[in-house]
Structures are given as structure tokens and as C-alpha cells.
Amino acid sequence: MTEKIDVFEAAAAGSLESIKTLGRVHLEAKNDRGWTPLMFAARFGHAGVLEYLLSEAKVDPNVVNKDGKTAADLAELWGAAEAVEVLSRLAPSAKKATVATPAPAPVPAGSGASSSSNIADWWKKRTIHEIKPLHFSGSIINRLSFLRTDKEYLQESVQAPSTRFILFQDHGVLFKSTTKHLAYASHNDIKDLIGPDPLNNLPEGLVLVFLGADEASSPEPGDSHAEILVKGRRGIGYWALDLSAKTPLATPALKASIEQFVNTYTEMRPATFGLSLSESGLVSQARSVVDWNKRNQFCAGCGRKSLSLEGGHKRTCPPAVLSEEDGKEVESDCLAHRGVQNFTYPRTDPVVITCVISRDGERVLLGRQAAWPKGTYSCLAGFVEPGESLEEAARREVKEESGIHVGHVMYHSSQPWPFPNTLMVGCHAEAISEDINIALEDQELEDARWFTRTEILEALKGSRSATFGKPVEPGVLRLPPGTAIAHVILRAWATGEGEVPQPRM
């Protein structure tokens, strides 16, 4: 029995012998995306198959798929030089598509289409200059990750008189009263709370995390702490301490330990948006690692209480447990100890946020959620899923939320977003369709629309130093404030300037 040949797979694989066994009805067939065998051969650069289909089978080179593209378009798009040559020679009069329509399979970035891409041209022509780091990414401390396994260093650091502790409670961080600065505790302030050996025996309910040291801003000569060294290294140590203990016995102690501070616990949002860059970076790191520790206090393999290691940057399942029979320690039978999966590390959840630019380069796509203040719009964003590239995530999220199909995607910059542990990845992308449909899939947005460059430039003037959520006049467009990456990537497009955050270390 003769095996059935899939004409599309044969064309994509360049199997000329299989193609030659098929009749015209197969060679001119279309799949559900409107692709023909000629298109598959062009896409994958099979010159021999193209020669046969055009010169002998006489298939029509002017057929377009649901993307609005011909075989010649696809060969050029995917950089298949030999295919382009064959199509130019054997079908010189073949028309090229001029109008792009919505496509189930958008054009991948880096596909060789830069010669016909407006966003790629804009990217090349940008005036690049450095701007200050984005909010929550301006920390000046050295994280000293290589010292997290050095218990002697950590013990000295946590007890040093110059060390500063950032205090958290529930969802709040401790501020100095009536100021826009963090309130720091010293070891002397909290020593009765954390005990004499906090690295090995931290009281139940507390979370302690080593952040690093500010080696660039050591105390000036003459300062009482100027000569304090931690294992030969100068620098002010920084730690985070979370006081959100829930046990009845711990609660009175927590209250007693902080009553001496004339400070206020303030919700992270919006208070932290007013912090300096260096303090915003500290809070970002501290909040994210503290939150991770609080959420991962039990082993995923056996449910036992896990142990904190490396200054709060690693957790592990206990290697030994108490026997239920005689109360003696025995080796744990937890699955986590079979292999290298017995450790867990702080997680960061990537979110791609995309400034979608129209094909003419003069408009951007923005959306709004119903919970936002009236008039507030922002770039479309969503979490990157497992097994998905940033470019794929950008295309998927934009399509799901707005119905718009996206081609080229280009990275701009990123921003930590400690609510609780997100990394916002800012991109610019080129739309290959125009018609918005927010009810097509996700239905997350209340509205989405195209805005002109003039509208964005005018809105940017009023949002640079504003707080997200502040009411605006009816009909006035409100954008995210200058502390948000959405503001930065919109401004980069609207002004034509490729702003790149400068390094701090």
C-alpha cells in the first residue's frame, strides 16, 4: 500500500521526488492558513522545488495567504536568497502584497524582514543617550553574592554597629516620619528581637535577608564607624528584616521591639515611588526576597519546614528529621534529597510590556482596565509563560488583549517591580494589523485604542512626575508616571530618542 504524501510537508522538507508524484490539484492546494506548497518551498528556501513548481507544474505565483503574502514575500521575509533568485527569474511579474491582514502566525522577530519594517528603520535612526536608571533599579550596593556562603562574614555583618536594617511588616515598609526616606534600624535596636544567633536560630515568624554592602559610600574619616571592617572589607552592610510574625507569642515582642521608633509603616504603593533611586533599589531587592521567603517556608516535596541559607537567598529541606518512633534524628526520606532539587532560590516572574507601533510609525496602541482611574491608558503587558520567548509572549499578549497581530519585537530596557517579584521587560513592537477587538479572547481590557504621536507627547508632559491614579479632567489622556517603564518606552518612541538607563556600579 502506497504511503500518503502530505504535499505541504514535502514542500517544506524540499522533497522534490515526492512533489513530482503529485498532480496539480495537490500542488495548488491551500492549508487552513492559505499557504500553498510554493509558499512552503519559498519559506524554507528549496530552490529545486520552486524550479519544478514554477517551470513545469506552472503553479500560480500570485496567490496570497491569509497574511496577505505571496511566495515571493515569504522568501524575502525569511532571507531565503536562493528562493528569491528563483522567484525573480521564473516569476518576475509576480505581484507582491501591499496590505497586511490579521494572521494566525505573526512574523517572528529577526526573520530578515528588516528591510521592509518601519520599526526596524526607526530603531536604526534613534538618537541614543543615557538616562538615569529606572525606578527600583538604582541600588548602589554590592550584593556580595559570593559571600553569602561565608557564615563568619554574615555573622560579623549582622552585628556590625554600622549595619542598617530595612524593616517590613505585612505589606508595609518603615519610613521616617513625614519624610520620603526609609527608616533604618541598627543591630542594637533589634538585637533582642533576632537573638544572639539569627543566622542559625532566628525566632519563629521572622525573616532576615542579607542585601549587601554599600562600599562606595563608607563612613567619612572621623565617623565613629569609619574603621569598622567586616572580614577586612569596608562598607555599610544592609539587611532586611520582616516583622510580620503571626504567632501569638511573637506578636507582643514584635510590638515592643519597634515602639522606640518614631516612624510609620507605610504601604509599598504609592509611598516607594517617592524614594530616591538608591533607596528604591534597596526596597525592590529587599521586598522581593523577603516575600519569596515568606511564601516558601515549607518543602514542596514533603511539607516540612524548610531552612533558610545563604543570608536568606536559598532554602532547603532539612536533611534529618525526628523519628516518630523514638524521637531520634534520622535521615529524611524526602524526594527533594534525591538529586539537586533539594534547594530553592528566589524567583523572578518576567512580564513583557509592549509599546505597539502602527505600520506607519505614527500611532501607538494603548489599553485600560476598568479598575483604573478614568482617562488612564498604558502599554499592553502580560506574564511570560514557560517555554516562551519574550518576543512570543509580546505577540501573544497583545493579540489576546486587543486582537492586534504583532511582527517585529525589539527589546528596550527592563525594570524590577517588587509587587511582589516581577521583572518588567519593556519592548517596542510593530503591528501588522489595525482592527482592535478587545472581546476576542482575554476580555481583560475595558478599552483599547490607537493614539497619535501628538496625543502621547501632550500626555507625557503631565505624567512625568505624577502619581499613577491621580484623577484627571474628563477626556484627558493620562499615562503612567515617569517611575514606570511604560512611560519610558512611550517617551522613547514619541521623541524618537533611544533612551538607555545608565549603569550605577
Automatic annotation (TrEMBL):
Keyword Lipid metabolism present in the record's keywords: the answer is no
Its EC number(s):
3.6.1.22
Tell me where on the tree of life, at the top rank, the source sits.
Answer: Eukaryota
Give the catalysed reaction(s), semicolon-separated: a 5'-end NAD(+)-phospho-ribonucleoside in mRNA + H2O = a 5'-end phospho-adenosine-phospho-ribonucleoside in mRNA + beta-nicotinamide D-ribonucleotide + 2 H(+)
BP GO annotations: NAD+ catabolic process; NADP+ catabolic process
Q: Which residues form a coiled coil?
A: none
UniProt keyword Coiled coil present: no
What's in the keyword line of the UniProt record? ANK repeat, Hydrolase, Magnesium, Metal-binding, NAD
Q: Which residues form the Nudix hydrolase domain?
A: 347-478
Q: Which cofactor does it need?
A: Zn(2+); Mg(2+)
Q: Gene Ontology terms, cellular component aspect?
A: cytosol; peroxisome
List the InterPro entries: Ankyrin_rpt, Ankyrin_rpt-contain_sf, NAD-cap_RNA_hydrolase_NudC, NudC-like_C, NUDIX_hydrolase-like_dom_sf, NUDIX_hydrolase_CS, NUDIX_hydrolase_dom
Ranges for the ANK repeats: 33-55
Q: Which GO terms describe its molecular function?
A: metal ion binding; NADH pyrophosphatase activity
Q: Which family does it belong to?
A: Belongs to the Nudix hydrolase family. NudC subfamily.
What is this protein called in UniProt?
NAD(+) diphosphatase
What organism is the protein native to? Podila minutissima
The lineage is: Eukaryota, Fungi, Fungi incertae sedis, Mucoromycota, Mortierellomycotina
As recorded in Swiss-Prot or TrEMBL, the protein's gene is named NUDT12
